[in-house]
Amino acid sequence: MNHKILALKKELSKAVIGQENMIDGLLIGLLCDGHILVEGVPGLAKTTTIDALSKAIGLDAKRIQFTPDLLPSDIIGAQIYNPQDHSFSIKKGPLFTHLLLADEINRAPAKVQSALLEAMQERQITIADETFKLDKPFLVMATQNPIEQEGVYALPEAQLDRFMMKIVVKHNAEDEELTIMRKVANQSFEEIQTVLSLEALQELQEALKDIHIDEALERYMIQLIAATREPVRFGLEALEPLIMFGVSPRASIDLYKASKAHAFLKGKTFVSPSDIASVIHKVLRHRIVLSYEARAKGIQSDEIITKIIETLPIP
Amino acid sequence: MKYSLGKIVLSIFMLCIVLQAEDFTYTMHTNTKTPYLKESVLLDIDINQTNPNVVLFFQFHILKSDAYSIEQLSSKQDHTLHQTKIHYRYLIYPLKTGEVHVSFSLIKRETNDASVAYSFSGDRDDFKKLETIDTPIFISPLILQVKPLAKHTQLIGDFNLTYHLKKIEAAAYEPIPMQIIIKGMGYVPMIEHILPKEENITYFTHPPEIKKTIHPDGIQYTAIYTMAFSSAKSFTLPAINLQAFSPSMHKPYVLHIPSNHFTVKSPPNTQLVDTVDMPKPLSYDFSWIKTFFIYLIVFISGYFTAIAIQQKKVFSTKKTIPHPLKEKIQKSPDAKRLLQLLMAQNNPLFSTNISYLEDSLYTDAKINLNKVKKEAMEKLDEP
Lengths: 315, 383
Known about the structure:
heterodimer; A: alpha/beta; Rossmann fold; Helicase, Ruva Protein, domain 3; 2 domains; 13 helices; globular; B: alpha+beta; Immunoglobulin-like; 7-stranded mixed beta sheet
């Protein structure tokens, strides 16, 4: 593994016990300039992870708690009138940061979600007549609480597509939870040190380009993507009534980038089928639109992805 | 002498307040200022515009009070622009003795022809408000010196009474209907307990039906008291005397219902048994036994089902259900197929197995497929 990545992970482990799945996802997002959607019950160290990552890389981090009465100007900023000199000045909102934790994004109405997702896509914000480019890197980690579904505004498919990966965060293992309990009780968490500069991060992003991926694997990826759109063509007749819409071209781009980043994180110089398999659930699960039949049967998109991998022969 | 003088004074007494305002005049006229308690006082109000150069409208009402009640008899309003003429006629019933102040509210609303034309140009969907300059006009309260009535006076006004009894013979407990009608001009003839309470008589009553007919000089009320009474044995309903007072005659009078005797015939005891609605049962009702057995069967089947489920659980725990993935792993024909299967599980448990398999496939490293399979299957058994 790259020594810089190793140092970063080691530093993160001072504050975040376990949750490697989420940390790997965040690092992949950071390396690929992607955004991460996290689904998990409260209290699984989502804020802690973002804070730790920002400290370890020396980046700005902000958190927005999304609520039903939030307005777009609350997150992007607004023009403020100054009565002393009769002029307007721009007050930038919390979106102007490197790492943003958008907590419970589905609690805010569609107009606020749109404002955030536009900034995620365009990486720029327009307030009144002025347009501001967002600093690089800009990573949004949005969270959704899977338990409470009353009074929430579900993200539409087109907006979900803007997220590179959806990570499902689960509870820690018992041993990990014991460690957390002891560390919190004794307040024995170590101080996070900055171990990676912004320039070093950009070098790592550049290094991703050198990760080799075989053409056969590229075609394999395209076939995996195509199988979500036309399952019958790949002998997956059983999936045909379960999928309403397959994934978009953004999914193939993100799967390609995420596979490379995963191989890079594992210290490999090339992408192997297992790298693709390691990220494909995260990249595709929020993009597959399930049919009513699938929902009625309680089938998750993860099961469909598993079936596709099981069926399509690896190169 | 005293009364005739009062009568003359009352008949000609006129409260005439004429205010020569700039734009209009108003006059108020009452038929009396010394009424009896609850006697109706006739009040006429005339408002006439005198300045034709402006457009005037008026808002007038008598302020509400616990000391009197108000009934409006008539309202004539001529809103011809520049020549507004309004006439109101009210009845005021003083409800307290002594000095009673009747207060008024009058607002003069001044505007012009252009504003009126503009307001008329609107419609239901584009309502245009009439712009006016509103000026409250002070009107001195009307002061009434209210005279008390004799105690136990139940009716005030000129009333007559009629009553109807359909029968004076009835069976025991059979209701005997009765209707009493009080009709005339005066204060509303509402009497709470019109029939005297008698033991051994059961009364069936409800509030009277009051009908109101408005005449130019007053209100005629018709109060219809509908009731019934019954008893187990013959009884005499005592005479009813309603104490009334006529303000026009200045003297009390009595409305009288004579005493009536009712003969109640008791039926023989055998006839008291209801053989129509509650006939003797033709056979004994054993339906409860059926219900009892249904409940018993439901209980027994529920009890044994619970036991059976428990037994099934015990047996099922003893059975070893083969893990579907284990079967698939076992049946994998080659390393590639096994790699594909383990990759698809998205489970970090198999990361080392996947690594071995990839090495064997892409770097020609030698592996024992059965050993990899065995290790993968063992991982599934780990807690």
